[in-house]
Amino acid sequence: MAPDQRHRTPAAVVCGLGGFLPPQVITNDDLGRVLDTSDTWIRSRTGILRRHRAEPGTATSDLAVEAGRRALKSAGRDGEDAVDAVIVATTTPDRICPATAPAVAWRLGLGTVPAFDVGAVCSGFLYALVTARSLLASGAARSVLVIGAETYSAILDPGDRSTLAIFGDGAGAVVVRAGTPDEPGAIGPAVLASDGSGSDLISVPSGGSRDPFRAATGDRADPYFRMQGKQVFRQAVERMSECSRQVAERSGWPVEEVDVLVAHQANLRILQAVADRIGMPRERCHVHLDRVGNTAAASIPLALADAAGEVLRPGHRVVLTAFGGGLTWGAIALTWPDVSPA
Description:
31% of the residues lie in helices and 23% in strands. By secondary structure, the protein is an alpha/beta fold.
């Protein structure tokens, strides 16, 4: 592409931010009363102190609507013409069919805008953000609401301490608009990747077309989220480190000059290992999981909402990175804008 054409191609600029956590809080001690676990065991292995749980009857769309509403308010947008598209990244849609995003757009009063889901598990928000950038670059949209939302409590095995202790529910959202590449908030270089040979490392075995819920499945049916933790740990550290370095290099930023790393909030030891591997001081890696757990596709926008105005300052060089089931992973670089969550 010629330089003048690149100049004319709109960039995606973050202009709104919002997050929402359901009010119910589950502490490590709460889990210890119903499982063979303890606060010490959970803290030492994950760094998590508590997580939020959706009440019975609360669906992913309910969390997504609230986070989306806050992001739109932060961006100063309302009415049917507030945005031109809605993308919801989630592993836990309201139903297998239809997608969750159209209902979210309708409930937000956004009219008949195109709305669709992205399924890339914990990398889903980054995949959705790059998709939004493509809509803006092509001229198909002038602004997009991107939401990461999860109710992982709906798919966790109530007897599996290894997953029940880790995951939480919540939603985070950003509004991106068409702008110029040199604006604060403009999404810069991005890397997305996948490796389907590891698809069984993170999965919900039953419920899809491979193993439908039918009477014939009998005892084989497994509707719960399963994860092979040791292998996932190694892959997560390797992949997030690699793509974080790549986007920093493509931005012309020495890693030591990156101000904040906002990585998928999976596990404190993973976050620390990624920071160590890329040569970044651990204190520059924002940690939010101690208070909310692993919220999968919602974790990066929730961490951004938590960091905005405190850790994140306008002009900061920021790298976002995630790793999830699929296997999928990715990273995005951007310079932080003057934006605060509503």
